[in-house]
Every structure is written in C-alpha cells, then in structure tokens.
Amino acid sequence: MEKIGIINCYEISKKCAGVGCINAFNEKSGAFDKYAFKDVEITNFVQCNGCNDNATVDIIEKSKKMEAEGIKTIHLSTCIKSDCKWYDEFVEELSKKFQVIDFTHGSE
Q1: In angstroms, rounded to a whole number, what is the distance separating the alpha carbons of residues 51 and 56?
Q2: Can you tell me whether residue 8 is helix, strand or coil?
Q3: Which Pfam families has this protein been placed in (predicted)?
Q4: Distance between CA atoms of residues 5 and 47, nearest Å
Q5: Which of the four pLDDT bands, split at 50, 70 and 90, describes residue 79?
Q6: Which of 30, 45, 50, 87 could form a disulfide with 105 if both were Cys (CB 3.0 to 4.6 A apart)?
Q7: What pLDDT score was predicted for residue 34?
Q8: Which residues contact 81 (CB under 8 A, 6 or more apart)?
Q9: What pTM value is reported for the model?
C-alpha cells in the first residue's frame, strides 16, 4: 500500500478542520484523482509550525518522521499553495526526498 502525507497551514488550521483535504482524498478528486485505482492511505496529516523564520527547517524536521514511516509522496495543502510565503522553499526542500504534489482539493 502506498503511503502519502499532507502538510497544511498552521494558521489556516485554526479555522479549518481539513475536511476539504480529507473529502478530496476519500472521493479521489482534486489532486487525489491520480490514486483512483491505487491502494493508498494517508498516514500523516500535519501542520507547519506557523509563520516564523524557521518555517522551512521545521517542515524538514517533520518530513523526516514522514520518511521514516515510508511516505514517498507529500501533498502540500491548497491553503499552503495559496497563502504561504515559504511555499517555494517548502517545495524545493521537500522535493529532495519526496514527490511533492502542490495542492489537495479545488483547482490546481
């Protein structure tokens, strides 16, 4: 079974329960349509540590735990893509060890 992880925005998570991300996964819609005929599970759903100067370092630390769990693909949530000033750095660093998908639900 393929394992995937999702990283969403800490600030947005204060008012978002992740329903859009989970529904898209369960329905195999949005960024998850590529898994329609695959055996796949979400094994990690984590938040960044908020907007700070160590944001990228913090994400890399969390990704090490994801890698240890056998995750090969990380989805950066739609909220990170649209609202995060560290988005490009996240993609650059995470892409060194993972396949990075740049959204979860809605349009790419």
Answers
A1: 10
A2: strand
A3: CGGC
A4: 11
A5: confident
A6: 30
A7: 93
A8: 87, 102, 103
A9: 0.92
